[in-house]
Amino acid sequence: KYYPCTIPLSCPLATSVGILSPFKILTYVFLSISASDLSRRRPLGLKIDQALLLVHNELIHENLTVSWLSDYCYQCLYQDLVSVPMSNTSGKPSIVAVAVDSQHPVTLHLNGTGAGRELPRIHYHFGEFGNYSLVVKSFDSSTKMISCDIIINESPVNSHLLSLGLSWLSHIPHMVRITKVSRQLLASPLGWCFYSKELGSPTRTDSTSSDVPATTWTVSQRRLRSLDTFRGLSLIIMVFVNYGGGKYWFFKHQSWNGLTLADLVFPWFVFIMGTSISLSLNSMLRRGCSKWEVLGKALWRSFLLFLIGIVIVNPNYCLGPLSWGNLRIPGVLQRLGFTYLVVAVLELLFAKAVAENDTLETPYFALRDILLYWPQWVFILTLEATWLGLTFLLIVPGCPKGYLGPGGIGDFGKYPNCTGGAAGYIDHLLLGEKHIYQHPSSNVLYQTTVAYDPEGILGTINSICMAFFGLQVPALCAAMKIHINSNHLFQGIISAILTKCSKDEGYIPANKNLWSISYVTTLSCFAYLLLLLIYYLVDVKKWWSGAPFFYPGMNSILVYVGHEVFENYFPFKWKMKDSQSHGEHLAQNLVATSIWVIISYLLYRKRIFWKI
User: What sequence ranges are listed for the domain Heparan-alpha-glucosaminide N-acetyltransferase catalytic (predicted)?
Assistant: First the structure.
């Protein structure tokens, strides 16, 4: 007789916890649940997002093989999970234990050695650190039908601490107020501070001319806080997910098609950069600045971004000293720098100074950007036609035309080395395999073995389009009035058509790895609506100051580079008691992200901004 393995789970909460601060409550809960999880997993050897499955084979003289398939793996092959030997004695099953994935629902496929048996498939969503039994037995000796039952021996733990984490985030403004005391520590003069604004500042008033007096370097009184708030919101989410996001799957990049929270922030950052370029260049043109001076500044800024991305923020440092043999050429800052340069040049070539009294009430305003700047639209449409032509017409050896899949075990294993189709092929051809990202998000779920870079060459075309869409935001013009831009809403319609409102079944699915056109139009629409809301709350009604996101938005390059460089340093990371606990990871990542918010606040109070 089989007795289920029962491991007691206890998480007492002190009755006096009500008098503790929210931070202490959250920390106590994190550590308490983590300790109970640890005591449960030690005899089982489970890792994060895993459950224990005991497979009971009661089939007489018949071996059993169990395969599995995740619901999130589109058109994938079943993967072998475990083989269970036959049972030689009735009533005494053969039992084998195996760890199963608990992130997403899975389908278990049973295969036996007996001829003519109908082996069912079982669809189930296992809970993290749960203890389950899969009992496989015959109905009776006279039939070939078998039964499969899943029994819960031990209930899974509640690892969804996201609500607690969000409540803790709500206390960041209080933490910022507390840090006012620590401002005294920064009273000493710092020789390295630069009084300026970071990349894409919307009200940039500096000039490349040495004849301009120093007073033109001050921050404009009309600076739009909503832009910095939006930029800071995107940046803080980016920092949080880069630090791990508590190891929750919805804070990681999607394996291939579809969107998670982590997939939103980089395109939003590109979008707001385009909006900032539009306003800043328009401001300089109204002041009569030379286009050559502005072009020189854009070239220098793009070069610095590319250089910082190559030399400082490079993942290959984990392999030792930086070497050209394995230097990753594409990257986040590299793409930002190139995108900024192209869009800035495009704006300089065709932009016209907008009068201060230009209003949004003219009958043709909704079409003004298209009518006045039709050369820009022709250029962008040409870029998009190039992306579509290369993606769907380029001949990739060993792959079908227009392939958009992940390769590996996707598409039933037909194209294992075709990850990314034309996008991956172009990077391999022009950059070389060792100079692109070696661990794409598809390598776990789809078991890909080919290097693929999500910041590759072909995707940069759509990154330029994303920044250009940011140029088209009319809600932040000099008239300071709300106006619904039909262009961005039309992009939402395009996205619905291209994706068929589905994750995998569309003509062109939304895909962060490919930076597909549907991905760009979808997030451009989202970004516009979110920016419109923030603009209304912050700059129009002034119901919200933008804090705490406003502060990192004012120092975006410093926060991004800093969080990459100091990722493995205390207090941003420390050795955990249990590295397989969502609770400890979430606490550590929230603390690290909050520290960068506090740092940006202190720098803002001292008027210290990193200039590029």
Answer: 223-345
